[in-house]
Amino acid sequence: MLILSTVFMLIAVVAMLIEAGRWAPDYWNTRTAQPSVMHIEADAGSLFRG
Fold first, then answer.
1. Shortest CA distance to 10 belongs to which of 18, 30, 21, 32?
2. Whole-angstrom Cα distance, residue 50 to residue 43?
3. Residues with Cβ < 8 Å from 33, sequence gap 6 or more?
4. Rounded to two decimals, what is the model's pTM?
5. C-alpha 49: how far from chain center
6. Per-residue model confidence as pLDDT tens digits over 21-37
């Protein structure tokens, strides 16, 4: 039973390292993580129209 759990843990660690390698460029490349904001200007009268 201990050997079986060790094998599953080893599989999980290998899968975690593979996924970390796939996603690591997104974590460190901050140029692709620029926020985009939509800015809408409204006049004061339009805020009170129903």
1. 18
2. 14
3. 26
4. 0.49
5. 39
6. 887 766 666 666 566 77
